[in-house]
Amino acid sequence: MKIYYKILTCLCFVSLLSGCAQRIENSKLAPEVLAKPSSVLITHISNIEKPDFYTGGRQGILDIAVNQMRGHNIKETLQTIDAKPILIEDYYQPFTDSLSSKSFKVIKAPASILPQDLKEAADGNIKYAPYDFKDFKKKYNVDYALILDGGFGIWRDHYSFIPRGAPLGVATVKIYMVELKTNSIVGYYEINFSNSIDGKWDAPPNYTNLKESSKEALSLALKKAHSYFFKVSNPS
């Protein structure tokens, strides 16, 4: 499968933790954090469980409405995807194992974070998480939280209402390591990832190849995030 790496500006809005204007630089886990391993909560924001159909390119408001309407059947099919096995295999399991190997006590949250439960942080400095997670310290008796944010699905480029090329499987993944006493970010990785679709994509009603491409995009993005934090060499 041919893999493409590109900035997917149409996916900026799927992130709940930061907007396009507030760019946080990727940073490995701070040395002082690794030097004194403690307890960490691992969790995710529930939006990443819900795949979607995205459109991009030069579109007016009416064009966007038309293109979304055309993609309605694809969107409905994508929403039958169960993302939880991917999150377990490529996020919870490897990150738990790697943090445990560095002597962290890892606690898995009993449920994901709902968007309506997020509270905006008072400090807008990008050194701090845009949302306030400090309550987790007392609630779970931990010092840190590892938080996964993002979205995935299918993206198609358009000029007005005219499609330009085949769709792509896409994923945006953002992972924060937050020090809960101050709500400061002590590790961060973001990737916008896309990959081409194997075989025929326009195959209703199941759109099997579209679904597989979107799932693979999420899986590979999570694998790259893990590699960034815990492997000797950085992912490209």
Write the layout of secondary structure elements.
Blueprint: E1 3-5, H1 31-35, E2 39-44, E3 52-58, H2 61-70, H3 72-78, H4 84-101, E4 105-108, H5 135-140, E5 144-159, E6 162-163, E7 168-179, E8 184-195, H6 208-230
Parallel strand pairs: 2-4, 2-5, 3-5
Antiparallel strand pairs: 1-8, 5-6, 5-7, 7-8
Question: Could you describe the 3D structure shown?
Answer:
This protein has 236 residues and is of the alpha/beta class. It has one domain. 29% of the residues lie in helices and 26% in strands. It is built from six helices and eight strands, in the order E-H-E-E-H-H-H-E-H-E-E-E-E-H. It has helices spanning 31-35, 61-70, 72-78, 84-101, 135-140, 208-230; strands at 3-5, 39-44, 52-58, 105-108, 144-159, 162-163, 168-179, 184-195. Strands 1, 2, 3, 4, 5, 6, 7 and 8 form an eight-stranded mixed β-sheet that branches. Strand 5 (144-159) and strand 6 (162-163) form a beta hairpin. Helix 4 packs parallel to helix 6 (208-230). The protein starts with a strand and ends in a 6-residue tail after the last helix. Mean pLDDT is 83; it is low at 1-21. Keywords: Signal. This is Lipoprotein. Residues 1-23 form the signal peptide.
